[in-house]
Amino acid sequence: MPGTGWFLGLPYMRGVGLRAVAPGEIAPDAPRDFLFVDDVLSVCADWRESLGEWWPHLAMSAHLILWVKDCTQGEVAGHRFTRDLIDHALDGVEGWEQLECDVVGGHVFAVYRKVAVGQKRVAWCKSAKHLLLIRAGAYGDAVMASSVLPLLKREGWAIDFLTGEAGEEALRLDPHLSRILVVKKNQVEDAALPYFWEAHALRYDRVINLTFSVEGELLKQPWRGDYHWSEEQRRALCGRSYLRRIHELSGVTCDYAPRFYASAEEKSFALHFLLKQGPFILWSLRGSAVHKWWPYTPQAVCRILAHSQARIVLSGGEDSKELAAQVVKAAQDYFGDASRVIDLTGKHTMRKVFSLAQMATLVVGPETGVLNVVSFEKNRKLVFLSHSSPANLTNDWVNARALAPHAPCYPCHRLHYGHEWCPQDEKTGAAACAASLSAGEVAPVVLEEYRKALDQKLFIQENAA
Fold it and tell me: May I ask the CATH class of domain 264-464?
């Protein structure tokens, strides 16, 4: 529920907390994105009429959230509400979808979304054995969490996944999930997360919360005291496998199976690319942190092009464009032709990049979602480690090789959002760990892994099948 809206509630009317708006005060100044109504509905003279009056002031796709005491769960004053009554609250109003209608913590909780025409109930219903898996974070975090889904599904659980926008994009088509609930960035303040999670937990038979299972526990966060443990402490206590910890917390065996499921259209896009280009190296240029980019990519790419017929596909978001341009320019300057460098930075969705990674002969890059997507695929991958050790990450992977930095700060087992605590190389501006790996060291390893992959002859036979 992004944007602005109204909170109508008895606490506001009684002067408790910040007063929002009382019944009758909604003005048609501009359509709003949501309207939250609690037990104030019980004191309205005609609550159905009030809902009908408020409804026109909501924008298209806006949400109406009702949270009223269930009279079957305890004593109430004013209007007496039941789930069935709220289920039909908007029967006299046109243009809605009902997304939720359930009893939670002694209250009837209902969510309606405004649509152009029609009335449709698409409300969630709990299965006989229903589990909520919670995992915030970036693409790679969601992909790692997907490892436990087949095992939980095998136990008979229906699985809902509560995540952020990146997590939804990564696991959108995972067949083990019943549904995905998306929390937008900054939608819920950190201090409110326990209450937010608890409200959801009341609806399920079991909850597995993997948030902070890697970050927080095995990658220390700068706002926590253990971020400033000694290097010896961090290395002694944080050097465990991320996947193993996720499986332990989920109560399943360590049969790892992280997987990205591409759509038919995404598979077709990637397969056509493969058939047109032939075997290629997908090079992920940047991750989500300051230490997740390697400054000598242009020099290394030129060496690889000089000693092979490889095509190198550059992937990344808008923040990768400058580095991609440097790579293309270096190839053009060195060979007079950069046709074997294909710059796709900022040109496709992450899901299409993930599908390309699955078709690549070799995937190269830092600790990013792209590398996590192919961690258990048969193609080969080469990972620039930064804050993680091989034991954290790549020792669990299939056909993976890690490039460990030579910097004394490695591995730090820390999350970094700037260079305050992440040593920076003065010459390149990159993190000291990344800059410690030279082009002369990396290029031969890329060539070696690429030739191994070609010898395995997996790049086209299996993908084209």
Answer: alpha beta
Q: Are 321 and 328 spatial neighbours (Cβ–Cβ below 8 Å)?
A: no
Cβ(178)–Cβ(159) under 8 Å?
A: yes
Band of pLDDT at residue 12, cut at 50, 70 and 90: very low
Instruction: Give the end-to-end CA distance of the chain in Å, rounded to a whole number.
Output: 43
Query: What predicted TM-score, i.e. pTM, was given to this entire model?
Result: 0.84
Higher pLDDT, 35 or 397: 397
Q: 98 - beta bridge partners?
A: 112, 121
| CATH class label, 5-121 | alpha beta
Cβ 258 vs Cβ 400: under 8 Å:
no
Within 13 Å, how many C-alpha atoms sit on residue 189's CB side? Answer: 2
Could you check whether 5-121 and 130-250 share the same CATH topology? yes
The DSSP output letter for 70 is B
Q: Tens digit of pLDDT for each residue in 346-375?
A: 999 999 999 999 999 999 999 999 999 999
Digit-coded pLDDT (tens) for 323-353: 999 999 999 999 999 999 999 999 999 999 9
- Please state whether beta strands 58-69 and 107-114 pair in parallel, antiparallel, or not at all (unpaired): antiparallel
How far is Cα 404 from Cα 383, in angstroms, rounded to an integer?
A: 9
Q: Considering only the top CATH level, what class is 130-250?
A: alpha beta
CA distances from 159 to 162, 199, 403 (A): 10, 17, 36
